[in-house]
Amino acid sequence: MKKIVLVLLFISFFILSNKITYGYADFETFEKVGQGKLLSELSKDDYKELYKKVSKRKFLGWSAYNAYEDIKVKYISETLFSYYNNGTSSINYAYKANKKTIDSYTLKVTGDIKLKTQKNNKVFGDGLQASIKIDYKREIKNEETENFDIKVSIDPKTQLVLYLYGEGKVTTGVAKNYLFWIEINKGGYEIFIVTTHYQRLEIIPIWKNTYL
Fold this sequence. Notes:
The protein has one helix at 44-51; strands at 5-8, 29-32, 60-85, 91-98, 105-109, 115-118, 121-124, 147-154, 158-179, 182-205. The protein has 212 residues and is mainly β. It has a domain at 14-79 and 103-145 and 167-199. The strands form three sheets. Strands 1, 2, 3, 5, 9 and 10 form a six-stranded antiparallel sheet that branches. A hairpin with a 2-residue loop joins β9 and β10 (182-205).
């Protein structure tokens, strides 16, 4: 049986259009490859300990603490096409692929923290945005449509899979809001930033049931 063949169709382009929006909870697969906890993994005890690390009380406004920074993740956002060759001879196959889009970042919040829209970008509301020292906002640009004609030979007992693969980084933190040194709000936040996203065509043995 031939070795696995990987063909990268267009590599490491950032997706800056919001015409098709994905939150990573909607991805087909999502895997951490770095240390740290996502917002969904924080327990009540985690919150209790992390809140203690938020800086001292303020007269007015938010104080934020980045608990886990730049957690590396990888994902498959969508499988575009899959074909099994269960026969005894190779099959020549042609497929037309279209570029897909994905938001360049996703924000999540818990507790009293809110999100709002600012110049077509999602940001943290109520003044928290200025307290989080992470640059993740990207200007919206017009999407340029790209089409690809793919011609490939599928060997017997192999599977052709065309999917959208990506990598990113996640930062998780907590924040408290003060008014006259009195805590009035608190909650958790998470920033997921896409670092790379591209179509990948892979031919794998049928017995291999994973391709992330």
